[in-house]
Each structure stands twice: as C-alpha cells, then as structure tokens.
Amino acid sequence: MSLVRYFSLRYTVLSLTIMNSLLARLKRDSFVLTSLVSKDFKIKYRRSILGVLWSVLNPLFMMLVLTVVFSFIFRFEIENFPLYLILGKLIYLLVSGSTTAGLSSIFNSASLIKKIRINKAIFPVEKVIFEMVNFTFSLTAVVIVMLYFQVAPTPTVFLMPLLMIYVLLFCTGLSLILSALAVFFRDVVHLWSVFTLAWMYLSAIFYPVSILPEVAQQAILWNPIYQFITYFREIIMWGTVPSLQSNLICLGMALSTLAVGILIFRKLQKRFILYV
Fold first, then answer.
1. In this structure, are residues 37 and 126 in contact, taking their beta carbons and an 8 Å threshold?
2. CB-CB neighbours of 252 under 10 Å
3. C-alpha to C-alpha distance for 161 and 163, rounded to whole angstroms
4. What is the distance between the alpha carbons of residues 210 and 245, in angstroms, rounded to a whole number?
5. DSSP 74
6. Each residue of 13-50: b (16+ CB within 10 Å) or e?
7. Residue among 168, 149, 143, 153 at smallest CA distance from 235
8. DSSP H helical ranges for 149-268
9. Could you give the CA distance from residue 178 to residue 189 in angstroms, rounded to a whole number?
10. How would DSSP label each residue in 240-259?
11. For the purposes of burial, counting CB atoms within 10 Å of the CB of 251, is it exposed (0-12), middle (13-18) or buried (19 or more)?
12. What is the dihedral of CA 161, 63, 103, 221, to 10 degrees?
C-alpha cells in the first residue's frame, strides 16, 4: 500500500469516526433538534398567505429573471438553459442559505445557552436541516420546469439522496466552522455575505465552464459548490451516472469540511459562554 493511500485511508477512517460521534450526540438530542426545526418553519411562514408555496415560487421567479438576462443579453447557448440555471441556483441557495443561517446560530441562541446545558452543535446543525427541508419543497420547481420543457426523468434521479448526503455533510461542517468563529469575530457575518456573493459568480451557475480560460477551468474544480451543481445536473438534466471520481471528490470535500468543522467547534465551544 502506497503512503498516499495509507494516509488517505487513515484520514477517511478518522473523518467517519468523528462524524459518527457527532451523529450519536445529535441522536440523543433529536427531540430538541426537531423542535427547533419546527419552530423555524413556523416563524418563516407565519402571516404568509402562500406559506410553503414560496419555496417553489421563489426559485421559479429567479429562474425567469436570470433566464431573460443570460439567454437574451449575454446569449449563452445552453440546451434547456432554464433547467440548467435552476439546478445550479438551488444548490447554491441551499449552501449559502444554510451556512449564513448557521453562522449566527450560536450567538442568536445566547439566552438559551446561558440558561441550560445543551449540545451547542445542535444550533448550526438545525439551520442546515431546516434549509434541507426547504430544498425538498423547492424541488417541485424543478419538476415544473422539466414538465414545461419536456425533459423526461431518468433512473439517475434515484442518486439524489447520495448528493443530499454530500451537501448535508459539507454544509454542516462549514456551518460549525463559521458559527464558532462568529462568536469571537462578528465581522465574519459581513465578510461571509461578500464571500457568498463572489462564490455564486465563481460556481458556473449562469454560464458554461467552456467560456473560462484553461487555468480558470482547472481552478473551478476545487470549488465544492461547482462539484455539487455538476453532480445535480448530471443526474437530473443529462441523465448520466456521475463517475467514481466525481463521487469521491464530493465525498472527500464533504468529509474534510465536516472533520475540520467538528474539530474547530469542539476546541472553541467551551469559551462560547464568555462571548455570546
């Protein structure tokens, strides 16, 4: 066994061990986690006439606007461009929405953290789960677009749960990192909003990768959102099974981010009470 394969195997085992530890703790707190998700759901759609329907209408409206801009003004020649666009936008919204909400989850829960002893990781994790629930409703918009453009689903759609696991692990790890850092450095909140805006334009959501210079095409391969979006388009739009390499890249990015997130969160959480 080569040295690279040995350390890769050791790292994977370590990442899975850390993930199992987190899952075990969250399982013990499943009631609290479920209650928080339910509360956020009620708050978001309180006094809203359309309620959950906004999870479908919002991506559809954005798709219509962006389709006009990028189809008729910039004239990108992409087959079924509205579907191409909405698939990319939904993954981006899931990542940016969950991490942005997770970022402020700890200091926004200061009153609860100060009163009772609770697993603090619940708060960023809950934000990710809440956004995942919203994402599932938003998939209705994808179905509508597919029906309109007569894009028939293929058996590859059954790979969706695998993609969702990758994105869930990645967003959880990133939210743990950001929420821990934001407790000590509130500027992270403002910096992250700027970063996510730049991230959107660097993820090939609106344009084909082929228009980029060769160097940029190689660099974008290191972008997790681009990898997840490409995976999503392959199984929904192009009806192809993502390669083993693609799966390993997505899994590696997800596990790496989760492992780093758990380690950073564990190291800093004991001092949260002093700063929230």
1. yes
2. 17
3. 5
4. 20
5. S
6. eebeebbeebeeebeebeebbeebbeebeeeeeeeeee
7. 153
8. 160-184, 187-201, 214-219, 224-236, 244-268
9. 9
10. -PPPHHHHHHHHHHHHHHHH
11. middle
12. 70
Sort residue 247 into left (φ over 0), alpha (ψ -120 to 50) or beta. Answer: alpha
Sign of the alpha-carbon dihedral angle for 18, 21, 25, 30? positive
Identify residue 109 by its one-letter amino acid code: S
Helix, strand, coil tally for the chain in percent (to 5): 80, 0, 20
pLDDT digits (tens, 9 = 90+) for 14-57: 555 656 666 666 566 677 777 777 777 666 666 655 556 666 66
Give 185's DSSP letter: -
Calpha distance 259→253 (Å, rounded): 10
pLDDT tens digits for range 165-214: 999 999 999 999 999 999 999 899 999 999 999 999 999 998 888 888 99
Contact 21, 264 (CB under 8 A): no
Say which DSSP state 205 is in.
S
Please enumerate in sequence order all residues whose Cβ is within 8 A of that of 250, keeping only pairs 6 or more positions apart, or say none: 163, 166, 224, 227, 228, 231, 242
Q: Which two tokens stand for residue 256?
A: 């790496």
C-alpha–C-alpha distance, residues 250 and 217, integer Å: 17
Place of tokens 């599932």: 136
pLDDT in tens, 101-119: 999 999 888 888 888 778 8
Amino acid sitting at position 120? K
Cβ(86)–Cβ(141) under 8 Å?
Answer: yes
What letter represents residue 220's amino acid? Answer: I
